[in-house]
């Protein structure tokens, strides 16, 4: 960049030289917004995926509705040099000063490479990776304790299951996913300790064919409540409901995909979180570099309970939810073993939702059928 | 005969000869260019039918891809991996082989670079980086070389074999970075351990693009020299034209196939090396980004001419660089640029059938009625 001092002038001449320069067009090429706050959102997949990306896009839509804010979006941006250039393009062409590159893989090395070059731009990343010693001050990270949402899914699933077998379609055996699988089962076991949950890892975040195969395989083996942790749970929800199984959602509200079979779902509450952050910027404040929250902080929420949910399930769901809202709730508490026989928590030991030890989880708890590798 | 008449007699045919040579060369430029314009015209019609302004679209493509210094940086960054990826298709194509699984050699090349760095982390960059690059080229070369071997010795279709082997390569990458080669600290994004700073590749000063761009362009030039100016290239072109004739002439067809496919794989392996050493800083699932497949498009558009790969890769890089701006300003889906690429691709393939059909490009017919 340093080589081209007269970039602005160069560009205009180059553009007119292309012969396309009608005055009407030039108007359309000015930065989208001159004053106020321009916020850029970047998604790794389609923003209507009924999942991870849609949850963020719903947050973007809420920010768009704020006065004095312009929102720009790009979808299907790969975790390569592409995302670095998309971020920089939003800064250069649109004057974006707050960016939400939402995919987990955008952080290292992409956000970390770009942030020092643009100290006036704020980079906000979902995933909770920021640390003061290692990372630039204009980068922030935030995350929600969504395992609690899967715990609540499990409570409802535990009541609704006839076969006492649950099914979980998962992408990769990484801590965030393992936390959700374990929470789902432990929620169900809070209803009936004999319940088991089978997990199938597809190996990729978005692989529709394998997700459908996994869902069918789980139902073939007797699972009658299915949930998922992949980028877009759409295929899992539709396949499972089509086979007559109950479904619990993840990431976003999937009620529309299976109105009769949908029980509830663990959702991100990004509209609340993102409008809060944009408001801080509008007010001239600084967003904290490291933010986390759960149900009580409106970082996550539950889908409305479906029509089939029984009164008993609803009662325990509401009671557990109220318990979680109080704070300090521990899904992982002793005595608890892993499914390979190791001690996860000794009697009397409890891992609250905020416990950092949970972030390096590498086990499946007893009752989960499946392996981490 | 006077001197003047003699010189006229000599000059006339040479001027005509120059014109004839020009006409033959002009065909190779005019037909792809015409096809490009036809593709653009078809796409403009498509946009207009959807109620969007084609003029606004192309103005944005210009601005996003080529209009500013940053646009060029963006374009060249995207073109950098495509140069080498396209060579992986173009080199075997000169032998008549359609290899479409370069993606597999790219991810394994990246994996090899990341794994090598785990072993040579003690070495300074001047030693460690070449070792990583060699490992990436060796693994990539072996992967696509195996496709050539299967083709020559077992009669396995190279197109299918290379494509299916790409899936095996991806599974291998996922298995190794999530298992034996995983850095225990890479919790939620399984990766090999991060490269030390001295094993990272920086940017070309003043350009804002990593050195993979320069190496890619150099490789394209060298590949052109290999094909057009050496006896191996000549032999490969003969074998590509008619393999029986080449065998009758005693050309070592098997060695040519193995050599060219291995070289092609080595180029793809280098893509992986640069992605790891210049972009990602570790080998992980982000290596699976489709560069191998984009390379197919570019090689075909360049008609497998290594020199033509350079401008074509820049053109495609520019289109992709402008994709974001098009999404944001015109509210068009990200696939819009892919539709344009597809239409141009089809137009250029159709253009292939037009060679030799225009009288103006065929001087030998000019004199005839």
TrEMBL record, chain A:
ABC transporter substrate-binding protein PnrA-like domain span: 38-313
Top-rank taxon, per record: Bacteria
Signal peptide as annotated in the record: 1-34
GO cellular component: plasma membrane
PROSITE patterns: TAT
Gene3D superfamilies reported in the protein's UniProt record: 3.40.50.2300
InterPro entries (alphabetical): ABC-Purine-Binding (IPR052910), PnrA-like (IPR003760), TAT_signal (IPR006311)
Keywords: Signal
Protein name as annotated: Nucleoside-binding protein
From TrEMBL, chain B:
UniProt GO MF annotations: transmembrane transporter activity
Pfam (any one): BPD_transp_2
GO CC annotations, alphabetized: plasma membrane
Membrane topology: Multi-pass membrane protein
Record's subcellular location: Cell membrane
Alphabetically ordered keywords of this record: Cell membrane, Membrane, Transmembrane, Transmembrane helix
Transmembrane segments: 30-50, 79-97, 104-123, 129-150, 159-177, 208-227, 248-271, 277-300, 307-326, 338-358
Full protein name: Nucleoside ABC transporter membrane protein
Entry-linked InterPro entries: ABC_transp_permease
PANTHER family per record: ABC TRANSPORTER, PERMEASE PROTEIN (PTHR47089), GUANOSINE ABC TRANSPORTER PERMEASE PROTEIN NUPP (PTHR47089:SF1)
Species name: Rubrimonas cliftonensis
């Amino acid at each position: 960049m340093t080589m081209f001092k007269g970039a602005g002038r160069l560009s205009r001449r180059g553009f007119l030289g292309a012969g396309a320069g009608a005055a009407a067009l030039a108007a359309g090429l000015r930065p989208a917004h001159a004053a106020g706050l321009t916020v850029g959102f970047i998604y790794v997949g389609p923003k209507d995926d009924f999942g991870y990306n849609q949850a963020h896009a719903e947050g973007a839509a809420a920010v768009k509705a704020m006065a004095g804010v312009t929102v720009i979006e790009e979808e299907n941006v790969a975790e390569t040099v592409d995302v670095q250039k998309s971020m920089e393009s939003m800064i250069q062409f649109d004057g974006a000063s707050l960016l939400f590159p939402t995919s987990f893989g955008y952080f290292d090395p992409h956000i970390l490479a770009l942030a020092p070059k643009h100290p006036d731009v704020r980079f906000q990343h979902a995933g909770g990776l920021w640390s003061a010693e290692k990372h630039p001050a204009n980068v922030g990270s935030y995350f929600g304790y969504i395992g609690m949402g899967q715990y609540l899914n499990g409570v409802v699933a535990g009541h609704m299951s006839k076969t006492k077998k649950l099914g979980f379609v998962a992408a990769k055996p990484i801590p965030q996913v393992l936390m959700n699988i374990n929470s789902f089962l432990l929620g169900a076991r809070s209803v009936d300790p004999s319940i088991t949950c089978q997990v199938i890892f597809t190996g990729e975040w978005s692989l529709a064919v394998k997700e459908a195969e996994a869902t069918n395989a789980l139902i073939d083996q007797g699972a009658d409540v299915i949930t998922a942790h992949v980028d877009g749970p759409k295929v899992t929800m539709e396949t499972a409901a089509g086979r007559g199984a109950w479904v619990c959602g993840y990431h976003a509200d999937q009620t529309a995909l299976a109105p009769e079979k949908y029980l509830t779902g663990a959702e991100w509450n990004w509209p609340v979180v993102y409008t809060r952050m944009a408001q801080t910027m509008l007010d001239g404040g600084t967003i904290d570099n490291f933010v986390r929250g759960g149900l009580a902080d409106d970082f996550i929420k539950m889908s409305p309970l479906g029509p089939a949910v029984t009164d008993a399930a609803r009662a325990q769901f509401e009671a557990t939810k109220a318990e979680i809202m109080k704070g300090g709730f521990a899904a992982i508490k002793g005595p608890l073993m892993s499914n390979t026989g190791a001690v996860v928590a000794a009697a009397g030991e409890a891992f609250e939702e905020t416990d950092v030890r949970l972030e390096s989880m590498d086990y499946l708890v007893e009752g989960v059928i499946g392996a981490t590798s | 005969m006077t001197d003047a008449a003699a010189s006229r007699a000599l000059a006339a045919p040479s001027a005509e000869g120059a014109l004839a040579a020009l006409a033959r060369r002009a065909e190779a430029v005019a037909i792809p260019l015409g096809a490009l314009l036809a593709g653009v015209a078809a796409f403009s019609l498509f946009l207009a039918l959807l109620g969007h302004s084609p003029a606004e679209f192309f103005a944005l493509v210009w601005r996003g891809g080529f209009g500013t210094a940053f646009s060029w940086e963006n374009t060249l960054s995207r073109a950098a991996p495509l140069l080498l990826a396209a060579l992986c298709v173009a080199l075997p194509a000169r032998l008549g082989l359609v290899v479409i699984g370069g993606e597999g050699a790219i991810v394994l090349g990246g994996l090899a670079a990341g794994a090598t760095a785990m072993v040579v982390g003690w070495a300074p960059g001047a030693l460690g980086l070449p070792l990583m690059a060699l490992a990436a080229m060796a693994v990539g070369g072996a992967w696509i070389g195996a496709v050539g071997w299967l083709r020559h010795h077992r009669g396995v279709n190279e197109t299918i074999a290379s494509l299916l082997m790409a899936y095996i390569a991806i599974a291998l990458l996922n298995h190794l970075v999530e298992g034996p080669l995983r850095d225990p600290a890479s919790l939620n994004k399984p990766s090999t351990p991060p490269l030390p700073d001295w094993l990272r590749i920086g940017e070309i000063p003043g350009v804002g693009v990593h050195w993979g761009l320069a190496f890619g362009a150099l490789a394209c030039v060298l590949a052109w020299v290999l094909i057009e100016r050496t006896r191996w290239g000549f032999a490969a072109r003969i074998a590509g034209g008619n393999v029986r004739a080449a065998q009758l002439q005693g050309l070592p067809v098997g060695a040519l196939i193995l050599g060219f496919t291995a070289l092609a794989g080595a180029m793809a392996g280098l893509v992986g090396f640069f992605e790891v050493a210049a972009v990602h800083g570790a080998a992980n699932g982000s290596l699976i980004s489709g560069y191998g497949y984009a390379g197919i498009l570019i090689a075909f558009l360049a008609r497998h001419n290594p020199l033509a790969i350079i401008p074509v890769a820049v053109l495609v890089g520019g289109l992709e660089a402008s994709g974001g701006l098009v999404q944001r300003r015109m509210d068009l889906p990200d696939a819009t640029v892919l539709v344009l690429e597809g239409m141009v691709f089809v137009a250029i393939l159709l253009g292939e059938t037009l060679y030799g059909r225009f009288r103006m490009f065929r001087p030998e017919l000019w004199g005839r009625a």
